[in-house]
């Protein structure tokens, strides 16, 4: 993609980078791919901002905590306690003139069986609820699946509930959200002065960040427990949704698309323990007023929430402030937000997309116009930091911004724009390198560019120990006679492309192409000790790729080819040979010539690959090498032993075993051959699986039987051709 972009006008390509980035990030935001990360960032920011902010003093909390369960178990037994406890609690709070007493405790069933008369405990709570107009009991609404039992769903509410506890009117709100309800047991429902819905819905990660303030059932809207005590009279209240705002009895409440309030949690709640309150009530009844742990006056004109924090009571929720938050804190938080006016405005999609466009565009302009990399790095970082600071400042003013989506767009824009600019700015240099790489290998090119003064003078270089390769196409002269010039070029290009790739795979340098032949070497310009291993590996890869070459030639309707490869290791002279106008970075010397002679002998034995004894000695790879012959090549006095690597780079156990067996049998056969034991040699060579070697050595043995070579013969075969 970058290759295509760099051919476009600079600003058009940069604009495409921006557009593609905006589309990608916009789609990811739309499908909520950043939701979890956004929540984590928001939670961290909110906790840092609000950890020292206390709940408004007009709200008090009384908790059934672990201490209460332990302290009251000897008196009241195990939880659930008799309902008279809540009646006593209401009486205690009435002594202090609490503004409202809100029970975040579902009392949906009577004590005992339904057909029995009310228990004394239930009756006490019912009477207390009748006598105190500031009590609020809990209800619950939810949406259950049909599988839970269709007969239980969408049942009408008891008579009078809608008229007494639902809002007078509510417009603009969604309907049909809930199909099941839970209310206080019948006698308590008839006498309770107020009803508040205590449901809460977590986000997909299980954290409670929002709260619904109005709960709809069959087109009737009931206030949440957090909203109910702030309304004048629910059945006289009116609600209206206008966009992202909910208007109820003078409250202007910002809400999200889901019609929920984003909660602005507090860091300090300072709850009372139920055990302490009941202990104080008992002391009052006993006349011990001087030693009260908690006085009723502490709750004067306060909204008092009663809930549970003991782990076993199953009302512990995960919130941005803590993984273990009592559920009643959620309702108290919403009430506190409504009372102190610190109502959070949730992120709006429009603002998020605008921030995405602005941060990404500014980043692109910075990268595209600034020339120093430090500025291309620091300016986008400053843009991102500035946006994060802005989001933090706005959070202090109750405005929540999506931080992840714009910063993701900024990051991707920076990466894309910088990558494109890097490619554009280096295009001239890369173009020159590509041109030069047609004549020298990439490693040589790097050496030339790094040390130009050393290579611009035409002089022979230094002696290096290297491995040299020669390879050519078998019977190319005969093939070319029957091909058009264009077909010959096509055939050679196909062949050389695959062979060069194999050489470069193992860090070789392609020296030159000579007609149908190829010359390469290992060990320069970067010195390496395992040049023989790399050269043999490359040669084996070339043999493997020959099948692919022939497949391509067949597809082009060109004749199949075969190759021969020869390798030799030794000291060669490496350097630049030529003139100032044309340099040839190459190797020369006797060992280079020997590599060429070894390649020429592959036809003699019907083999594709031969290596000299020096390459065989330098080889550390565990590759079975079959001894082939002892040859005195033309132009060289000293004979050389030849070997043939017999397996691929990753042979199967069976192939390796066969190759090792061939090495053993060929070694035995050659031993008899060198000792002039012609009958034994004939028998052993006849068992050799390779037809070329078998035919050649059987012919030699028959000839030497007729014309013995003499006692001074050392088993050397004299090659008469190059």
TrEMBL record:
Question: Residues in domain Guanylate cyclase?
Answer: 467-599
Leader sequence residues? none
Q: Where in the cell is it found?
A: Cell envelope
Its keywords, alphabetically, are:
Cell membrane, Membrane, Transmembrane, Transmembrane helix
For this UniProt entry, the molecular function terms from Gene Ontology, in alphabetical order, are:
adenylate cyclase activity
BP terms from Gene Ontology: cAMP biosynthetic process; intracellular signal transduction
Q: Name one GO cellular component term.
A: cell envelope
| Residue ranges crossing the lipid bilayer per the database entry | 351-370, 377-395, 407-424
Family annotation (InterPro entries): A/G_cyclase, Adenylyl/Guanylyl_Cyclase_3/4, CHASE2, Nucleotide_cyclase
Domain of life where this protein originates = Bacteria
Where is this chain primarily localised? other
Q: Which family does it belong to?
A: Belongs to the adenylyl cyclase class-3 family.
Q: What is this protein called?
A: Adenylate/guanylate cyclase domain-containing protein
């Amino acid at each position: 993609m970058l290759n295509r972009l760099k051919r476009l006008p600079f600003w058009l390509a940069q604009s495409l980078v921006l557009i593609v980035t905006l589309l990608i990030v916009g789609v990811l935001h739309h499908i909520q791919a950043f939701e979890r990360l956004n929540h984590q960032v928001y939670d961290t920011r909110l906790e840092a901002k609000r950890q020292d902010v206390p709940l408004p003093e007009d709200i008090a909390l009384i908790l059934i905590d672990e201490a209460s369960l332990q302290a009251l178990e000897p008196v009241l037994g195990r939880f659930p306690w008799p309902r008279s406890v809540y009646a006593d609690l209401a009486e205690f709070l009435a002594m202090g003139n609490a503004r409202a007493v809100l029970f975040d405790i579902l009392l949906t069933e009577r004590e005992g069986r339904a057909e029995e008369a009310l228990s004394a405990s239930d009756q006490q709570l019912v009477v207390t609820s009748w006598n105190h107009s500031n009590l609020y009991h809990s209800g619950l609404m939810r949406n259950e699946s049909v599988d839970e039992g269709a007969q239980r769903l969408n049942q009408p509410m008891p008579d009078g509930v809608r008229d007494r506890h639902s809002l007078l009117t509510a417009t603009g709100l969604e309907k049909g959200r809930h199909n099941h309800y839970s209310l206080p047991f019948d006698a308590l429902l008839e006498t309770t002065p107020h009803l508040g819905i205590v449901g809460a819905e977590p986000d997909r990660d299980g954290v409670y960040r929002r709260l619904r303030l109005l709960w709809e059932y069959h087109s009737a809207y009931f206030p949440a427990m957090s909203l109910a005590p702030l309304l004048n009279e629910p059945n006289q209240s009116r609600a209206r949704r206008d966009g992202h705002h909910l208007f109820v009895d003078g409250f202007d409440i910002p809400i999200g698309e889901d019609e929920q309030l984003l909660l602005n949690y507090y860091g300090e709640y300072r709850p009372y323990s139920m055990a302490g309150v009941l202990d104080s009530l008992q002391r009052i009844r006993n006349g011990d007023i001087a030693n009260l742990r908690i006085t009723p006056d502490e709750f004067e004109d306060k909204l008092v929430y009663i809930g549970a924090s003991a782990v076993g009571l199953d009302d512990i929720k995960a919130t941005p402030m803590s993984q273990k938050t009592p559920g009643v804190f959620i309702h108290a938080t919403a009430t506190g937000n409504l009372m102190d006016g610190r109502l959070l405005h949730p992120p709006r999609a429009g603002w998020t997309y605008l921030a995405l466009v602005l941060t990404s565009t500014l980043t692109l302009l910075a990268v595209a116009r600034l020339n120093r990399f430090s500025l291309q790095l620091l300016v986008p970082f400053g843009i991102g930091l500035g946006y994060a600071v802005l989001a933090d400042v706005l959070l202090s003013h109750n405005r929540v911004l999506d931080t992840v989506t714009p910063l993701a767009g900024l990051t991707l824009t920076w990466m894309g724009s910088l990558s494109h600019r890097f490619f554009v700015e280096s295009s001239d240099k890369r173009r020159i390198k590509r041109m030069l790489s047609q004549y020298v290998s990439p490693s040589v090119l790097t050496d030339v560019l790094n040390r130009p003064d050393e290579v611009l003078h035409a002089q022979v270089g230094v002696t290096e120990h290297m491995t040299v390769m020669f390879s050519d196409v078998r019977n190319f002269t005969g093939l070319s006679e029957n091909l058009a010039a264009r077909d010959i070029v096509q055939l050679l290009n196909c062949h050389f492309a695959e062979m060069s790739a194999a050489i470069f795979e193992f860090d070789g340098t392609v020296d030159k192409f000579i007609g149908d032949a190829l010359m390469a070497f290992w060990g320069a310009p970067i010195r390496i000790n395992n040049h023989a291993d790399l050269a043999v590996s490359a040669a084996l890869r070339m043999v493997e790729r020959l099948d692919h070459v022939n497949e391509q030639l067949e597809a082009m309707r060109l004749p199949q080819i075969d190759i021969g490869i020869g390798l030799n290791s030794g000291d060669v002279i490496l350097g630049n040979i030529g003139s100032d106008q044309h340099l040839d970075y190459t190797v020369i010397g006797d060992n280079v010539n020997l590599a060429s002679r070894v390649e020429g002998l592959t036809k003699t034995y019907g083999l594709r690959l031969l290596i000299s004894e020096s390459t065989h000695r330098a080889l550390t790879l565990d590759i079975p090498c079959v001894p082939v012959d002892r040859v005195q090549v033309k132009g060289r006095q000293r004979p050389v032993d030849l070997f043939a690597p017999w397996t691929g780079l990753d042979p199967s156990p069976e192939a390796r075993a066969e190759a090792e067996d061939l090495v053993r049998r060929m070694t035995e056969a050659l031993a008899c051959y060198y000792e002039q034991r012609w009958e034994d040699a004939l028998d052993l060579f006849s068992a050799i699986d390779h037809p070329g070697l078998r035919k050649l050595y059987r012919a030699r043995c028959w000839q030497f039987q007729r014309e013995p070579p003499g006692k001074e013969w050392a088993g050397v075969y004299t090659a008469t051709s190059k």
